[in-house]
Amino acid sequence: MAIDLEMRRVVFDLNGEYQGGDSISKEPMWIIASVCSRADKIEVNRSPPCEMPLESRSRLLSGDFTPPFEESEEEADFDLFS
């Protein structure tokens, strides 16, 4: 996760791959994370912006938070349990 407090934007990565982002309020907020299994872990590090994955840095600066992939109409209609 990377946050730009001046532009009030946040982006999220999973293993270095952009997952999404959004604009945020200037009000104080809680940031909550959860893991899916006992093997998962969360690390909190302060890293310089130059170490941020390129796509995430680009989207944080541009404010373009479109999903990393768009679901096709066929995929959206596919139901795994039908």
Shape: globular
> Termini separation (Å)?
36 Å
Which whole number gives the mean pLDDT?
83
Share of helix, binned: 10-25%
Number of structurally distinct domains:
1
Radius of gyration: 15 Å
Main β-sheet, spatial strand arrangement: 1-2-3
Major sheet size, sense and barrel closure:
3 strands, antiparallel
The SS-based structural class is alpha+beta
Number of helices: 2
Number of strands: 3
H/E series, N to C?
EEEHH
Residue fraction in strands: 15-25%
Low-pLDDT segments, ≥5 res: 78-82
What features would you describe in this structure?
By secondary structure, the protein is an alpha+beta fold. It has one domain (2-77). Helix content is 17%, strand content 20%. The protein has helices at residues 54-62, 73-77; strands spanning 2-4, 9-14, 17-23. A three-stranded antiparallel sheet has the order 1-2-3, with helices on one face. The radius of gyration is 15 Å and the shape is globular. The model is unreliable at 78-82 (pLDDT under 50).
